Every structure is written in C-alpha cells, then in structure tokens.
C-alpha cells in the first residue's frame, strides 16, 4: 500500500483510472535507465523522478558546460564543470527524496552497457550519436527490454518506442541501418531549439510512465517526427527488416 506521504505527493496521477494505486506502486518498484543526461535526458529525468519512479540510473560521461544550459534544464549555472550524471542525480533527489537515484559517470559501452540494461525495466536512449543508439538498441534486444529512443536537431524531433520482451522487431537498426547511417550531425554545428529537445525528452518520460503502468498504447511500430516550426507531427509505420542483423529470425 502507498504511504500517506506517497499518496499526498502522487495524488493527482493516482486519480487517473489508468494508473491508480496499483500503477503508482508499479512506478515505485520500477528501475529506469537514462543513457545521456543532456537535452533529452534532463526533462525525462525530472518528470520520472516527479512521477515516483523508484530507481533511476543516469549515465553520462560528460561535464556541464556553459553552452549546455540553453536546453539542458536540469542543471544550474553553478553546475558548470561538474559531472552531468552526478549533478542530475543531485537535482532529482532534491526534487523527490522518496526515490533512489544513481549516477554512472562514464559513457556506457560493451559489458557495462549490457549490465546496466539487464538491470533496468525500461531504457531511455537520450544519446546524441548513431553509434551509441545502435549499441543500446542491440543490448536492449538481447536482454528483452523496452526501449524509448528520441533525437532532436534544429527544429526537428524524432520519437520511437520498442518492446523487445518477445524478441521481435522492428528495431532501431531496421529504421537506420548502420551501413547506411547519414553523416553525423550535432547541435554545436547545426544548432537546436531548446524547447524541441525538451518536448522529445518529455515524451520519452510519458512513454516510460505508460510502459510501467501498462497505460495506453506505446505505438511500438511507429516512427514519429515533430516539426517545431509548424507544430506538425508526421507518423510512419516501421516495418521489421527480415534481414536485420539485430532482430530478424536469422540473427537469433
């Protein structure tokens, strides 16, 4: 049962029939791994902490820079020079002392990536490069996890959700094959509107809450693209690639 303190804190979302006390208890028992504590991970971490996700793991090997503050709203000016993961953990604990949060102050890769993903219920890919996204996608598929991935550049945002618990595609590789990856782009070269990144990170948090509480539709076969200039969304059905080296039957 929820404690009186928990009930008062989470009352507004407990009132939602799709969540209720049972859903809130599921949130309190859940472990979410957030890989990347930048513009996407910042709002995602804050909203998941506020929602009462019992255990958050925030992984990022970078330190806070002045140029981050335009969009990475979890940090404050005096956090410059600090570890992003540690500063983010301090903020979510200050927001909600009822949760547990742990910082991983290194870029997750190989065995450490696999270990952290194996311990999570839901994984949020909040990274900013294709190599990391492909590694996270493969590890989530191998460990049969739910993955919520997003990206943002300029005025554009992208959102994808995957449920690999049945070891079925499609997966991120089906959408963006490694051999056909476009030239990498980053915010320092092309720019990005801060609220667009925040929108996508907030949607990642929403999808995670829905996944944990079994509320609504995760739209796991949908690729969604947001245009911040027109406020228009485009939606595409993502088919599984029968030759995908990650999720096809031939690869298993």
- Uncertain residue ranges: none
Q: Say how many strands there are.
A: 8
Q: β content, as a range?
A: 15-25%
Helix-strand pattern: HHEHEHEHEHEEHHHEE
Mean pLDDT: 94
Give the terminus-to-terminus CA distance.
Answer: 41 Å
Which strands sit side by side, in order, in the main sheet? 3-2-1-4-5-6-7-8
Provide the gyration radius in Å: 18 Å
The count of helical stretches stands at: 9
What kind of sheet is the major sheet?
8 strands, mixed
Q: Give the fraction of residues assigned to helices.
A: 25-40%
Report what the structure shows:
With 252 residues, the protein is α/β, with parallel strands linked by helices. The chain has helices at 4-14, 20-29, 41-51, 84-95, 110-119, 130-142, 172-175, 187-190, 194-213, and strands spanning 31-35, 55-59, 100-104, 122-125, 146-153, 156-163, 222-227, 232-237. The chain has an 8-stranded mixed β-sheet, sandwiched between helices.
């Amino acid at each position: 049962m929820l404690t009186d303190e928990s009930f008062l804190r989470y009352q507004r979302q407990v009132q939602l029939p799709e969540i209720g006390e049972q859903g809130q208890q599921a949130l309190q028992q859940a472990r979410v791994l957030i890989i990347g504590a930048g513009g996407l991970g910042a709002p995602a971490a804050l909203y998941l902490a506020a929602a009462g996700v019992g255990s958050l793991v925030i992984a990022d090997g970078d330190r806070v820079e002045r140029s981050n503050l335009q969009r990475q709203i979890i940090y404050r000016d005096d956090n410059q020079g600090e570890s992003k993961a540690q500063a983010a953990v301090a903020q979510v604990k200050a927001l909600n002392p009822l949760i547990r949060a742990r910082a991983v102050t290194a870029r997750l890769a190989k065995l450490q990536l696999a270990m952290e993903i194996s311990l999570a219920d839901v994984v949020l890919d909040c990274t900013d490069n294709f190599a990391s996204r492909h590694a996270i996608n493969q590890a989530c598929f191998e460990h049969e996890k739910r993955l919520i991935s997003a990206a943002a550049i300029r005025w554009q945002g992208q959102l994808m959700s995957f449920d690999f618990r049945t070891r079925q595609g499609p997966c991120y590789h089906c959408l963006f094959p490694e051999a056909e990856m476009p030239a990498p782009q980053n915010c320092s070269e092309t720019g990005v509107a801060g609220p667009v990144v925040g929108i996508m990170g907030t949607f990642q948090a929403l999808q995670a809450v829905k996944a944990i509480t079994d509320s609504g539709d995760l739209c796991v076969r949908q690729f969604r693209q947001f245009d911040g200039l027109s406020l228009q969304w485009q939606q595409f059905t993502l088919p599984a690639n029968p030759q995908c080296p990650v999720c096809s039957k031939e690869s298993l």
